[in-house]
Amino acid sequence: MNEHNKNELLDIWLTLTHFQSKINDELEQALQEQFDLSLKEFYVLNFISQTEEKKLRLQQLQDMVGLSQSAISRLVGRMEAKNCGALQRHICEDDRRGVYTCITELGEKKLQKALVTFNEVLQSALLKDGLKSELQALIQKL
């Protein structure tokens, strides 16, 4: 691989991470303003809601959200208190060391409302500033 290709790949990567960071910031701001949810909190509600039993072990959540064990535990603790019961913790009956987090009816309602905003902000961010054409141009460089 020649030096030009190395720099071009780096430029493509940096452009993609810039777009992702900018969109994350817009999503975070909208969710905070309208629902008092961080983006990570939104992801927690979403991941739990997607399961059949509406619950996940904290260890599963930490992998999905990308946080350490202590960080996910603090996040879930804040969500139990802050969000008026959006989540509840339960001890795993099979393994007393395991802790499940369940989404409540209130949490599910909050998620559904936040999901509308999330999709609107994401769609708007992807369509504005010629992002689609810039992404297509990046792909063509590959």
UniProtKB/TrEMBL annotation:
SMART domains in alphabetical order: HTH_MARR
SUPFAM superfamilies named among the record's database cross-references: Winged helix' DNA-binding domain
Species annotation: Fontibacillus panacisegetis
PROSITE patterns: HTH_MARR_2
Start and end residues of each HTH marR-type domain: 9-142
Protein name, entry field: DNA-binding transcriptional regulator, MarR family
Pfam families, per database record: MarR_2
Superkingdom in the source lineage: Bacteria
Organism classification: Bacteria, Bacillati, Bacillota, Bacilli, Bacillales
BP GO terms, sorted: response to stress
Keywords: DNA-binding
A GO term for molecular function: DNA binding
